[in-house]
Amino acid sequence: MFGGMETITPRPNTAKWLPLVPQLQPAAKSLSNSDNSFSWKWAVGLLAVGLAWRLLRYALQFPIWGDEAFICVNLLDRDYLGLLDPLDYKQVAPILFLWSELTAFRLIGGSELAIRLLPFLAGVGSLFLFWRFR
User: Fold this and answer.
1) pTM beyond 0.90, yes or no
2) What average pLDDT does range 41-54 have in this prediction?
3) Can you give the residue range of the structural domain that contains 101?
């Protein structure tokens, strides 16, 4: 009807109690291999930019922000069970995140790289999950 749009053709009524239901016919596919190749290259480019951005931000080791510092203060004097209690400075965070941060803090140390390791890995992992389920 209008270029590649779907056309509606009435289907014959096979039962008297069924109303006439239009049957949709699929339109012709207009995507070519060059369109698919372009979109694939675009997606790879965005994935590369996202990965480069995360690597750059992680490598520059910006100073710890206020909310990160308040979480770090809780890691200094608490153990795993102590993190189940309400956190100081009215902070709220998921317990598995706190336990993971405490593990990284104890294994790697209290640097900016250690504190931001798990959020960095989560950001990189999310890029690949978006790629996988695109």
Assistant:
1) no
2) 92
3) 7-132
